[in-house]
Amino acid sequence: MTTQTSFTDTVRRMWDTRPPRIPSEQGGNSKIAGVCEGIGVRYQIDPTIVRVLFVVSLFTLGGGLPAYLLAWLAMPRYGMSTSPMQAVARRKEQLTPPERKERSTGWWLIIFFILTSGLFTSEGTLASTGILAIVALLVAWWALHLRTPEPPAGLLADAPARTLPDPVDLSTYLPAEGTAVPPGRTSPPAWDPLGTAPFAWDLPDPGPAPQPQPRKPRIWPWIALGLLGTLGALTVLGGILGLWVGGNYEDIAEDRSYAPTSGAELQTHYKGEIGDLIVDLRRLSDLDDSRDVTVEGGIGPVNVFLPDDVPVALECEEGIGESNCIPGSYNDDAAGETLNVRVEGGIGPVRVTVPAAS
């Protein structure tokens, strides 16, 4: 009975203190949604380690992708207490405007999770790798929680009763639009040139420097992560070998940038893979005939720059991630034929830069 109660309490504590997402627009050093950044800050580890593990598991026949989507579903934005999964489960009338945006994202995440995990659409390799990656994610989460059960003060919107004893600098992170700074953050305000704050005034003279207490080493969490990394590394090597034989090894995780200057250089389809996709049309000259161009996002940010002197008809299709794409017509008075641009979001933010005069 005691073991069952302890297990239940630990799971509840894990959920109550789960990390928030910290995307790039909120100050995080993220490429997609800020999942890895949030995990790193919450459990005080290098976010790069988390990214490497997700990428490694991604090559396990795509098993890491549903695990990432599941984490995205469960983690709220920094400054919020409602995750996309929770927003979907509630009625729209009960949500605040920021939470309604999370609800829309949540539905897209659920759809992509169903399609990529194979748990509901197929059996065999795809389903088994999806389950393996999700189980590995849960085991790693359990290990990280046991290592660091208390979150940094000021990280969670629902402030827990206990936080890390040492303060963590969160001053570079901004709360989600329409939300307040989480309670407990004690970083000096940005407007204070001396880095002072009311909580730091009239402090007593410091006493003797405390001697660091030796911590009992915990090796088994690193063993678990090591086993996961070894399994993923072996899978990556096998995948790279297969791609080498098939001749597609150059398509792995690379940024793609295109800047056509004429209709002859203009492609009909620009597709992102893993990494940034940049399509810069600002130097495009007048078109002799109407052209159709599709920009399709992959896994990573998509940046599209519309031309300044070519008529453009823009269409937008949402993916998973923030998007500022607004359909419509631009440069209606420009010479030449119309360029029809369709931007299809993938997994990551979409940014479309329109002409300054539009």
From TrEMBL:
Cellular component, GO annotation: plasma membrane
Localisation per UniProt entry: Cell membrane
Protein name per its UniProtKB record: PspC domain protein
Pfam families according to UniProt: PspC
UniProt entry keywords in alphabetical sequence: Cell membrane, Membrane, Transmembrane, Transmembrane helix
Taxonomy, superkingdom: Bacteria
Topology in the lipid bilayer: Single-pass membrane protein
Organism: Corynebacterium comes
Transmembrane segments: 52-75, 105-121, 126-144, 219-246
Limits of the Phage shock protein PspC N-terminal domain: 29-77
Coiled-coil regions listed: none
